[in-house]
Amino acid sequence: MTEPTGLLARRNGQGTSANLADVLERVLDKGVVIAGDIRINLLDVELLTIKLRLLVASVQTAKELGIDWWEHDPTLTARAGRQ
Amino acid sequence: MSELTGRASYAYAVARSFDPALLEGVRGVDDAEVHLVPYREIVVIVSSVPLAEFDETALRAKLERLPWLEATARAHHAVVDSVATHSVTLPLRLATVYRGDERVTEVLRQSYPRFRAALDRLAGKVELEVKVYTEPQATAPATSPSSSSPGRDYLRRRRAQHRARDDAWQRAAAAATQVDTALATLAVDSRHRPPQSPQLSGAGGENVLNVAYLVDAERAEELAAWARRLEAEAPGARVEVTGPWAPYSFALPDGEEPA
Q1: What is the pLDDT of residues B192-213, one digit of tens each?
Q2: For the domain B125-250, what is the CATH code?
Q3: B 223-242 residues with CB below 8 A of A?
Q4: How far does the CA of residue A72 sit from the closest CA of chain B (Å)?
Q5: Can you give the pTM of this predicted structure?
Q6: In chain A, positions 22-81, which contact chain B (CB-CB < 8 Å)?
Q7: What is the pLDDT of residue A19?
Q8: How many contacts, defined by CB atoms under 8 Å, are there between A and B?
Q9: What is the tens place of the pLDDT at every residue in A5-30?
Q10: What's the ipTM?
């Protein structure tokens, strides 16, 4: 397989094209943890990521496939709905 | 002051100092422009966000909304990614928020030795992710309605499917071991992650290996090329390489748990 542009040339496109799962894995599970002034419990969020891991490739892909379960999922929308 | 203005500072990454002009036009979460908060030869990349939208209550609620989470995760990553093209970068966890830039400076001052050591360790290196998948399943073995019992046919068909799936997995797992052993020799360090679920990969095939390699930037192409060669030599497995990523998976030295 030839890729004339090379792997490294793709970096700039990655910000938007990277697989959502790969991005979430990194920004939620990896990277440096330093205590912020705003304390959020990432454990809460990890419950959400587990769910994501099981169910969703990417919001865009899911939308293209006509999947929109999260819009009706009470655990994902209940709090947001009250905003 | 920030209490009065209602602004907070969202921090994306720690990096070695670089020309702030290089980040002109780069926007982060909430579409805000990013700027640098310096301390000695280190900077934190931050953007100003409305405190009311990033306090504990608001954040907790928003993080449960998938579209917001995706947009924020991508915005966070896009900033980290563009910083990493200019300087050695230590990505921070999503939603690291301070009550103003003065607090960011304070944290930078306190953690300076730790950041400095991590940046030294990661200089000139990039992260590549390699995943090995089983080949997407061929259609289930053709079965002729050989018996008069649909139930028995069904069971036979199921068993054949399971066997095919096991065989596919074994082939891919064998290939994965070869791939990992070979590529590890090019890498400075590696981190294995749990395989991603097949629904998630969306590409068909089961993920049997999910590993991040830390590699000298100039060897990244070599590693990717080698991965492609190994794929060609291993029928029954699909090898996917993504990156280069900022060294998210190596931001902490091996064994060091998040504080």
Answers
A1: 987 776 655 555 688 889 999 9
A2: 3.30.70
A3: 224, 228, 241-242
A4: 11
A5: 0.79
A6: 22-28, 30-42, 44-45, 48, 52-59, 61, 70, 75-80
A7: 77
A8: 174
A9: 344 434 433 444 677 778 888 888 78
A10: 0.83
Q: What is the pLDDT at residue B227?
A: 94
In chain B, where does the domain assigned CATH 3.30.70 lie? 125-250
Three-state secondary structure of chain B: CHHHHCEEEEEEEEEECCCHHHHCCCECHHHCEEEEEEECCEEEEEEEEEHHHHCHHHHHHHHCCHHHHHHHHHHHHHHHHHHHCCCCEEEEEEEEEECCHHHHHHHHHHCHHHHHHHHHHHCCEEEEEEEEEECCCCCCCCCCCCCCCHHHHHHHHHHHHHHHHHHHHHHHHHHHHHHHHHHHCCCCEEEECCCCCHHHHCCCCCEEEEEEEEEEHHHHHHHHHHHHHHHHHCCCEEEEEEEEECCHHHCCCCCCCCC
